[in-house]
Specification:
Layout: E1 2-4, E2 6-9, E3 15-18, E4 24-25, E5 27-28, E6 33-34, E7 37-45, E8 53-62, E9 69-70, E10 80-81, E11 83-89, E12 108-116, E13 126-134, E14 143-148
Parallel strand pairs: 4-14
Antiparallel strand pairs: 1-7, 2-3, 5-6, 7-12, 8-11, 8-13, 9-10, 13-14
């Protein structure tokens, strides 16, 4: 998992990223939104798990580990947690024919790019984490931490 200024997965499954590996996202005080960014997530399993199914969830958490909630889609509607979930099946990788590849060698994997081209209404000078859960389980290796940059503190007048 990583953050980038821009990312896309092409039809062959290759990730194309610009500005990959960022840990700080800018903030626009005029709009109240973070800068544009993308999250790339890849989950792979060994060949022994070809054909298995899992529920994958991607969550945005604040520094305290609580789900981040954003304003509802219309005024008066409840806030919505930032969470994406999907049931997936880990199939053996397939290649166009005629080619020869070793059988049952490569990981089966699924991948996503979540693009936030307009940014998100996150608080400046705060820390956040993207967390991946697989079948309701997670660990510290499945977390990508980042901060939203805020204005530098002004001089003390007094």
């Amino acid at each position: 998992m990583f953050l980038a200024d821009y990312a896309v997965v092409d039809p062959a499954g290759k990730i194309n990223a610009i500005g990959g590996g960022l840990t700080a996202v800018g903030f626009n005080p005029g709009t109240g939104m973070s800068a544009s960014f993308a999250l790339f997530v890849q989950v792979g399993v060994p060949p022994a798990l070809y054909g298995s199914q899992s529920a994958i969830e991607i969550l945005l958490q604040d520094a305290g580990g609580e789900l981040v909630e954003l304003p509802g889609p219309a005024p008066g509607l409840p806030q919505q947690p930032v969470r994406v979930g999907q049931a997936v099946r880990f199939d053996e990788p397939q290649f166009p024919q005629p080619v020869s590849v070793p059988a049952r060698f490569l990981q089966a994997r699924v991948q996503w790019v979540l693009g936030f081209t307009s940014g998100l209404p996150l608080m400046p000078s705060q820390a956040y984490s993207w967390r991946v859960k697989i079948d309701d389980e997670s660990n510290d290796e499945w977390i990508e931490r980042f901060v939203v940059l805020g204005p530098a503190p002004g001089p003390v007048i007094g």
